[in-house]
Automatic annotation (TrEMBL):
Belongs to the binding-protein-dependent transport system permease family. LivHM subfamily. It comes from the Bacteria. The chain crosses the membrane at residues 12-35, 42-62, 68-88, 100-122, 149-168, 189-219, 231-258, 270-289. Signal peptide: none annotated. The keyword Glycosyltransferase does not apply. This is Branched-chain amino acid ABC transporter permease. InterPro entries: ABC_transp_permease (IPR001851), BCAA_transport_permease (IPR052157). Keywords: Amino-acid transport, Cell membrane, Membrane, Transmembrane, Transmembrane helix, Transport. It is a multi-pass membrane protein. It is found in: Cell membrane. The keyword DNA damage does not apply. It comes from Jiella mangrovi. Its main location: membrane.
């Protein structure tokens, strides 16, 4: 059997692919965070709660209406995005002219309220969620048995990240969004509804978090704490990639997922802290992040 640094090649390749799967969730979640911070300058601490809401929306749609995975993949993110748009317009928008700390404190409190409410009603135990029947089973890759659904998650993540990057960087709507954050008065003078653009931006970021939650529901149990367990790592990913960098969030999400998977092979004791060690090193050497712009 082929060995690399004393580790069997099948085990190494298996952990590498598992790292890519984790990196897929990191990429989608950090992308949503980067969109909100890059365009609104709001550190959205409620992102983990919105991720959890997406998973619970899919679970409740199935439990109470019989609506399965594929419709929920569309409905749940739209519901979370709509609720988030109302919150942004009625509450968060009042904080834009204040210090960024106020936005962080507001979204942190919002996350505690949402997670606490769901924990009170559903309890802390997780709920299973059935994935689509068409993606049941797995494929033998030779070095590992890959569940078909997890392979679908990787492909879906790549498509979603690429689509959002093209929307922000290559379309007229994306240009309006970027311009509205740099000089809202000038953009509004050209007849563009800047408040609506900002609301749509926050809804887009929240919808991405909810979409990741729906994708995660068949893999992990649907729990009120599922977002709080992940959001700290996602914040570290965004900081390493560069706060507000769309491409940086995507690349760093996959990169750190792979690195985390490889660490579990070569040094399992460090797998839970490797992301934060890298974050500390990056902040010391390049405070703006790997792909961020120096101010």
């Amino acid at each position: 059997m082929t060995m690399i640094f004393g580790v069997p090649l099948p085990a190494l390749l298996g952990q590498l692919f598992l790292g890519i799967i984790n990196g897929s969730f990191y990429a989608i979640l950090s992308l949503g965070l980067a969109v909100i911070f890059g365009l609104l300058r709001v550190i959205n601490f409620a992102h983990g709660a919105q991720y959890m809401l997406g998973a619970f929306a899919a679970y409740l749609l199935l439990a109470y209406t019989g609506i399965g995975f594929w419709p929920a993949l569309v409905i749940a993110p739209l519901v979370v995005a709509a609720v988030s748009a109302v919150i942004e317009r009625t509450m968060l928008s009042r904080l834009y002219d204040l210090d960024h700390l106020y936005g962080l404190l507001f979204t942190f409190g919002l996350a505690l309220i949402i997670e606490g409410s769901f924990r009170w009603y559903f309890g802390a135990a997780g709920q299973p969620y059935s994935g689509p029947q068409i993606l049941s089973g797995g494929t033998n890759l030779g070095f590992m048995f890959l569940p078909n659904y997890r392979g679908f998650v990787v492909v879906a993540s790549i498509v979603i990240c690429l689509a959002v990057w093209l929307l922000i960087e290559k379309t007229r709507l994306g240009a309006y969004l970027r311009a509205a954050t740099e000089n809202p008065q000038l953009v509004q003078a050209f007849g563009v509804n800047v408040p609506l653009l900002l609301t749509l931006t926050y809804a887009l970021g929240a919808g991405l978090a909810a979409l990741a939650g729906v994708l995660a529901a068949p893999i992990y149990q649907v729990s009120p704490l599922m977002g709080s367990n992940l959001i700290i790592i996602v914040f570290a990913v965004v900081v390493i990639g560069g706060m507000g960098s769309i491409g940086g969030a995507i690349v760093t999400g996959y990169m750190l997922g792979i690195l985390e998977g490889l660490t579990k092979v070569f040094y399992p004791e460090a797998s839970n802290i490797v992301v934060f060690v890298i974050m500390a090193i990056v902040l010391m050497l390049r405070p703006a992040g790997l792909f961020g712009k120096e101010v």
